Amino acid sequence: MILFDKIVFGPVVSRRFGKSLGINLLPLDNKVCNFNCIYCECGWTNVKNTKVKYTSYEDVVSAMQIKFKELGQKGDFPDVITFAGNGEPTMHPQFLRIIDDTIRLRNEYMPMVKIVILSNGVLMNKPDVLEALLKVDLCVMKLDAGNGKLFKIIDQPLNNKSINWYVQNLKKLGDKLIIQAIFLKGVFNNEFIDSTDESNLNDWLNYVVQLRPKEVMIYTIDRETPAKELEKIPSDILSNIALRVNEAGIKAKVYS
Ligand code: SF4
């Protein structure tokens, strides 16, 4: 499993975003998330970890300032600054303040670089988190299933809310919303699951049509997953899903 041991990491080459400078707001030695996705590259969420020690606001801003300045002075610009890292970035208690400083530092040292947030979107029901998300360039939110049963198996949301609650929450981003959707199959807890089965896919497409995102990013597992019996989805099946999204008048692309 991959854990990032720095606040600012890279730039790394990203399948979806090109040259990406990563920002990790989560602890450097463990994963913190309000989901427990069975495919998470950071491993399982420690659901008993109630006392999370986040990196301080000051340390985050200082690490960003040093790196942005260095890259800006060299003219070695990334394509994007991406909030990702060891879990869910919006859980940082100073998330809004950090986004304000990121925008300020980006404008100062590398104004053409876009700011991306990869999130599960759960905390958009908090006004400060929503405000922060609405300020950045690209908000990429998860929608990995179309029905409640698969949503709970694949993403394991710790707040135990329904998929419908989750989708209503995503609507708060309006036309800023970009969806990322992983498709997978395999055995988990002795049950065979396949998120490309027709019934799930139909329900998922209905949600996508309701949400009308700017774009849908479709992919499958790429690295080691905490649930050991998962399989990749072949690229022709992913392409067919993208085609169906396109036919609904929504941009979609497969990243594999
Ligand atoms: S939402 Fe992201 S960080 Fe959280 S468990 Fe899922 S894949 Fe991992």
Description:
With 256 residues, the protein is of the alpha/beta class. It has a domain at 8-184: TIM Barrel, CATH 3.20.20.70. The protein is 33% helix and 22% strand. The chain has seven helices and eleven strands. It has an eight-stranded mixed beta sheet. A three-stranded antiparallel beta sheet has the order 8-7-10, with no helix packed on it. The longest helix has 18 residues, at 57-74. The two termini are 19 Å apart. Iron/sulfur cluster (SF4) is lined by residues 33, 35-37, 40, 42, 45, 87-88, 120.
Average per-residue pLDDT, rounded, comes to 96
Q: Considering the protein shown, what is the CATH homologous superfamily of the domain at 8-184?
A: Aldolase class I
Distance between the termini: 19 Å
Instruction: Please name the CATH topology of the domain at 8-184.
Output: TIM Barrel
Residues in helices, as a percent range: 25-40%
Give the biggest beta sheet: 8 strands, mixed
Q: What low-confidence regions span 5 or more consecutive residues with pLDDT below 50?
A: none
Bound molecules: iron/sulfur cluster
What is the CATH C level class of the domain at 8-184, in words? Alpha Beta
- Rg calc: 18 Å
- Helix-strand makeup class: alpha/beta
Strand content: 15-25%
